[in-house]
Structures are given as structure tokens and as C-alpha cells.
Write a structure and sequence with these properties.
heterodimer, A: 470 residues, alpha+beta, Alpha-Beta Plaits, 3 domains, six-stranded mixed barrel, four-stranded antiparallel beta sheet, 13 strands, 51% helix, B: 233 residues, alpha/beta, Rossmann fold, globular
Chain lengths: 470, 233
């Protein structure tokens, strides 16, 4: 029997009992649809979270902290252990430490984390944000390797700055052609500007400084210490791209300046205050933390070990990555299980349909055997019938799952927007090719399994009895 | 010339509820190529059982059954299916056409299982329907055919894979006498003109006597009498 005949023969048989075939297939469609919608939601969430993490460059970097922060202990609620760890003395985070870490071959970049709150004035607007200074070499690494408009700064001491996309929003500036919805007339405060007019424009960075001349006298007079403002003029060199919906680009600084430029800015940094107290006033040249970027994530364990040998305290989020992945596998499994239950119900429907079909077609099976059909041919015909239901149901089920996910995504975005979130274009669902192929394959396999018993039963029909059958 | 069928001491028992029924009790006979032989006898005498054994629909409990020199008892299920597909053609009292398929599709059926090319089998099925005089009715379904027409379709189907042996189980049992005579004439024509060997179970001893070369009388699972009526041409 030729395969083309086999397929035509089986489809003919299915078409003869249209209603029953359609109802049975509908069961499979719903089962696969549920499975696809559920798993694509799980996959979508996983992708959103990991992409946000990757975009923020949280996996390939290590933070070297000033004290023995037993973060895992603290996170698991074991505060005593966390606090006792804090008293262990670690190496001071100064330029010597930077040089020491830079000498580790697996380390690509190391620089002190210098970030502090600033006010910025730009295009007649003002807002508060966090300034972060990074070396110019970071222009080659995530997350600074991709710019939305303009360039990364040219040197470590250039009077330049790079703005985060969301900083523009807090300045109430909308970029022309950035894919944002046009501003309605009611929001007059917003300005729509072309990107060209922002790149190369001046920006003022305002830092708070302790006014020493007034402070001494003022404190003597019982007045609170007074703060003055220091203005640094920089040029906007670039604007970072529009961030992923789930990531917070402000972590990487609302305004990013070259390392030396940032170091030179006079400021009263609150974070340094803590250092001053805890380190007995030896604060000069001591950094809050060091940022270490690896050449390759797989060197993490090695570098971490080396840093510990050098008596540094280390925190790497990549350690949490496995934990996060395991969590998502569990979520996906749970979501997949719900879909699988629906599919099992559908499989029972297939078995029922096929067994009914055999009872109805007993005589026909007898005739087919009498004219020379072998047991294997009969079995294959029923197998192909079951597989066709699975294939049809699988393909249409994936379509249904996709439709459901689109609808749910649309509703979810409206809801998020109403809650004041970054609504409009968040993708909660992700339907990768492997899920499409996997769901269809799964549907076919389950249907074939459901067809095993009916097919074997059909093949075993005794032709003599079947021909006597009414 | 070796016989087409050679049965030696065939026995067949089967379970009917708790009782064991002996349907055949030592049947021996031969069927020469080109012969037209009828099996007559009362209901339950074992005629149909014997026909089903020769047709490969059932297997004997003991004894030897050689068709073209090959012992059917030695064939596995695949080979038995091949025997049904190519060596024998069977027709039945109740026609046993597939109701959902047209006359042409019913005739094509055995050729599909034989793996014949689509074009070739449609041409052959059309020719066979023409042979049995139903060229005009090939797109009709069994429900739209008269009894005689349905049996002609069944005959065309039995000839699909060019078997040397045609087995007929009461082919005229459901037909009026005129139609029955036409079917018998068709069978005789196939026997005479095409050299088809024919083994036919029938109640109608007179008709059988009119056409057959030999008549085997069965009673209680045995052949009790074999009469030669005329010599094959």
C-alpha cells in the first residue's frame, strides 16, 4: 500500500464521520491551545526577566564590596550571620585594589563604582537623577555598547555625558521618531524634539557640596549645616536606546559620565559619609564598591575564588541565575502540566472515537481483510487516522494558543497601562519555534499513543466473524 | 497438471460458547485448474467453513490445505493476507461492498492494498466494471445499486488482482431467480472464457447441476458424495 493511498484512505474514513472527527479534533485543539498558551506565558516571563537581567549586564559582572556582606545569609533571613560577617575586615577598595584586580587575567574591566545623586538642567528643564561614572572602555561592553542616538564618550576625562532614555522622560522631552505615541495637546508641558538637536547640546550637572565656610560658623550657632551648589557643564554625547519593558535602566545611571570627570566633581556624597564613619575617617581614595567585568561568564567561579584569596568581598548575581532558571523550569512545568491534562482528556476522546469507529466499521474491516488487507495495513490505517487528528488538532491548537495569547496580551497591556505601568508594548507571551514544533509533535505523539489500542484491536478483527457482523 | 486446490483430511473445530463444534471432520478433495465445482448441502454442513479455509479467512485445526502447492497452514498472517489479495477472489451472499465507497472505489480496493499505481488501477477497475456490464454505474454507491448490480460489482472486485481461483459463498442467495440466473451465467462465462477456477457454495442444486462440472455434497462436516456432471471444456 502506497503512503499517498494510505493518507487519502485514512482521511476519507475520517471525513465520512465529519461531525465526530471535528468534535474529537476540537478536543485536541483546545488541549494544545491551552498547553501552548500556558507554556508561551511561562517562556515569555522567563524571557522578559532574563532579558532585563542581561540588558542590565547583571550576569557578567561582579561587585566587590567594602565589607563582608553575607548577602545570601541576609536574603535567607539569617541576619546574625550576615552581621557577624560584616565585622570581618576586608581589603580597602582603593586604587591599589583596582590595580590588583586588573592584574587577574580573566578580568576585562575593573573600575570603582562612583555614583551619586545629581540635579541636571537641560533644554530649560530640570530633574533629579543618579550620576554614574564609568571608564570610556565600557563603550565596548554591555550595557553601554549600544547607543540609541549619538556615541559613547571618547575618553575617561572628556567633559561629556550620556543620557538614559528614561531621563528624557523625566525632563518631559519626547524624541521625534522614537516610536512614542504623539503627545496629546492636553500635555502641554512635554516637548517634542529631534534627536539631532539634543546630541552635542550643553547640559548642566548640579552637585550638592557642603559649604565649609558657612558650615563651621553655622554649626557653632546651632544651625543645620548648609549646602551649596556646584555646576559642571558637560556636552551630551549620546542617548541610550529605549530600554526593555522589564528593565530599569536608571540602575546604570540616569546620566553617565567618564570616570575621571565623575571623580573630579565636587560633591557631598551621602554614601561616603558611611565610609567615613565606618573606616574611622580614612575616607580619601576609598571607593564604595568596585565593578568587575569578566571576559567570560564561565570564569566566574575562578575569579570569585581569586578575589576571595585576595581578601575581597564579592557579590555576583550570576550565582542566582541557576536558581532563577530552576524556578522558571518549575513554573513552566506547572503551566505545562495544566495544558497536558487538557490534552490527556482529548486523548481519551480520540480513543473513544476510534473504538466507536471500529465497532461501526467491523464489517468493513472484515471486507478489507477478505480482499487482502494485511493486519499491518489495517493497523496503519487506524494509526494514520489517529495521527491525522493529532496533526490537525496540533496545528490548529497552536493557532488557537497564539490567538488566546494575543488576546490575553492585549488585555494585560491595557491593565498594566491603567495601573500606571509602562503599558502598550509589553510582550507577556513568547511563542518560539521550538514550542510550535514541540506542541504539534506532542499532539501527534499523544494521538498516536491514543491510537495504539484501537489500531491493534482493528487489526485483530476476525474476518469471518466481521463479515457476519451487522 | 497439479491441482489448484488439494485438501487432505481437513478438520476444523471452534468454540461456540462452552461447547466445541466440529465444523469439518476429515474433508479431502481436489480442484483442478479451470474446473467449476459446486458445494451443496444443508445449513451447518460445513460448506462455508470449507470455503473460508480455502479463501484464507480462517485456518484449519488439522490436515493439509494446499493452494497452488502451498500449504496455507504454514503461512503467517502477512502471507495469508497476500494469499487473499492475489491468489483468490471471494464473493458473498450479502455482497459485502463498502457502503461509503462507489462501485469503482470498491473494485479499486484490493488493488490499493496490492500497492498498484493509481492510474493503472482505475483503468483496470473500469475495464472490470465494463466486463460485468456496469460501466455506466461506476460512480454509484452500493445503496443506489440493485442486488444483481451489487453482486456484479463484488465479482469485479474479486477479479481485481487477477486471481486464478474464485470462491463464491451463495452468490445468488439474496437475488430473485432471474437475476440469480444472470449472475450464474456471468460466473460460467468467467469460467469458460477466462479459465477461472470456481468453487461455489449453493443451495440451488438444480442451477448448480445446470452449470458445474462437479458437485460435492456435504453433510455434518464431511463430503459424502462427489458427482461428476460434465467434463471441463
Amino acid at each position: 500500500m502506497k503512503s499517498s493511498d494510505l493518507i487519502r484512505f485514512s482521511l476519507d474514513n475520517l471525513w465520512r464521520t465529519k461531525l465526530r472527527t471535528i468534535l474529537t479534533t476540537l478536543g485536541v485543539i483546545i488541549g494544545i491551545g491551552a498547553l501552548v498558551a500556558m507554556v508561551s506565558f511561562g517562556t515569555g516571563m522567563q524571557r522578559n526577566v532574563t532579558e532585563a537581567f542581561t540588558a542590565n549586564d547583571l550576569f557578567t559582572s561582579i561587585r566587590v564590596l567594602p565589607m563582608n556582606m553575607e548577602i545570601e545569609q541576609a536574603m535567607s533571613g539569617n541576619l546574625d550571620a550576615a552581621i557577624s560577617g560584616m565585622h570581618k575586615r576586608t581589603r580597602a577598595l582603593n586604587d591599589t585594589a583596582v590595580a590588583l584586580i586588573a592584574a587577574i587575567p580573566e578580568v576585562a574591566v575593573v573600575y570603582p563604582e562612583i555614583s551619586f545623586p545629581v540635579k541636571i538642567r537641560f533644554k530649560g528643564r530640570e530633574t533629579s537623577t543618579t550620576l554614574r561614572s564609568v571608564p570610556a572602555v565600557m563603550g565596548h561592553y554591555r550595557p553601554y555598547d549600544r547607543m540609541g542616538w549619538g556615541d559613547f564618550f571618547s575618553s575617561d576625562s572628556a567633559p561629556e555625558a550620556v543620557l538614559a532614555y528614561s531621563t528624557l522622560a523625566s525632563l518631559k522631552i519626547v524624541l521625534e521618531g522614537a516610536g512614542e505615541k504623539s503627545i496629546s495637546d492636553s500635555v502641554r508641558a512635554w516637548r517634542q524634539l529631534p534627536a539631532d538637536s539634543l546630541i552635542g547640546a550643553d547640559i548642566e550637572v548640579v552637585t550638592s557640596v557642603l559649604d565649609l565656610s558657612q558650615a563651621v560658623g553655622g554649626m557653632a550657632a546651632g544651625l543645620p549645616p548648609s549646602f551649596g551648589e556646584h555646576v559642571t557643564r558637560l556636552r551630551v554625547q549620546g542617548i541610550r536606546p529605549k530600554p526593555h519593558a522589564f528593565s530599569n535602566e536608571q540602575i546604570q545611571g540616569g546620566i553617565v559620565v567618564p570616570l575621571a570627570t565623575g571623580k573630579q566633581m565636587p560633591r557631598f556624597a551621602f554614601t561616603s559619609m558611611w565610609n567615613m564613619l565606618s573606616r574611622g575617617g580614612r575616607s580619601s581614595g576609598i571607593y564604595d564598591a568596585l565593578y568587575v567585568r569578566l571576559r567570560d561568564l564561565k570564569d566566574l567561579a575562578k575569579v570569585r575564588m581569586r578575589l576571595k584569596e585576595l581578601n575581597f568581598s564579592v557579590f555576583a548575581l550570576a550565582d542566582q541565575l541557576e536558581e532563577i532558571k530552576r524556578g522558571f523550569i518549575m513554573v513552566d512545568t506547572a503551566l505545562g502540566a495544566v495544558g497536558t491534562i487538557a490534552l490527556i482528556v482529548a486523548a481519551l476522546g480520540i480513543i473513544n472515537t476510534m473504538v466507536m469507529s471500529i465497532l461501526e466499521r467491523t464489517r468493513e474491516i472484515g471486507v478489507m481483510k477478505a480482499v487482502g488487507a494485511s493486519e499491518r495495513q489495517i493497523r496503519t490505517i487506524f494509526f494514520v487516522e489517529a495521527g491525522s487528528i493529532g496533526l490537525g488538532g496540533g496545528v490548529l491548537g497552536v493557532g488557537l494558543g497564539w490567538l488566546v495569547s494575543r488576546l490575553a496580551n492585549w488585555i494585560a497591556n491595557i491593565w498594566v497601562a491603567r495601573q500606571g505601568g509602562p503599558g502598550g508594548d509589553i510582550e507577556f507571551f513568547f511563542l518560539p519555534l521550538w514550542l510550535v514544533a514541540g506542541a504539534i509533535l506532542f499532539s501527534v505523539v499523544v494521538s498516536l499513543l491514543a491510537g495504539l489500542y484501537p489500531a491493534a484491536r482493528a487489526a485483530r478483527v476476525n474476518p469471518v466473524e466481521a463479515l457476519r457482523h451487522d | 497438471m497439479s491441482p489448484v486446490v488439494e485438501a487432505i483430511d481437513l478438520h476444523k473445530q471452534y468454540q461456540k460458547g462452552k461447547a466445541e463444534v466440529a465444523a469439518l471432520r476429515g474433508v479431502s478433495f481436489t480442484l483442478a485448474a479451470g474446473e467449476f465445482v459446486t458445494l451443496v448441502g444443508r445449513s451447518g454442513s460445513g460448506k462455508s467453513t470449507l470455503l473460508n479455509l480455502v479463501g484464507g479467512l480462517d485456518s484449519a485445526s488439522s490436515g493439509q490445505l494446499l493452494v497452488h502447492g502451498r500449504d496455507l497452514a504454514a503461512l503467517d498472517r502477512e502471507l495469508l493476507a497476500l494469499h487473499r489479495r492475489t491468489t483468490v477472489g471471494m464473493i458473498f451472499q450479502s455482497f459485502n461492498l463498502v457502503p461509503a465507497r462507489t462501485a469503482l472505489e470498491n473494485v479499486v480496493l484490493p488493488m490499493i492494498f496490492a500497492g498498484m499505481e493509481r492510474g493503472a488501477r482505475i483503468a483496470r477497475a473500469t475495464a472490470l466494471l465494463d466486463l460485468v456490464g456496469l460501466a455506466e454505474r461506476r460512480t454509484h454507491r452500493p445503496a443506489e445499486l440493485s442486488g444483481g448490480e451489487a453482486q456484479r460489482v463484488a465479482i469485479a472486485r474479486a477479479l481485481a488482482n487477477e486471481p486464478a481461483l474464485l470462491l463464491a459463498d451463495e452468490p445468488t442467495g439474496n437475488l430473485d431467480s432471474r437475476t440469480a440466473a444472470e449472475i450464474l451465467d456471468l460466473l460460467q462465462h468467467l469460467n469458460r472464457e477466462r479459465g477461472l477456477t470456481l468453487l461455489m457454495v449453493t443451495h440451488d442444486e438444480s442451477a448448480a447441476a445446470r452449470l458445474a462440472h462437479r458437485q460435492l455434497h456435504m453433510l455434518d462436516g464431511q463430503i459424502v458424495q462427489a458427482e461428476t456432471l460434465r467434463e471441463p471444456v
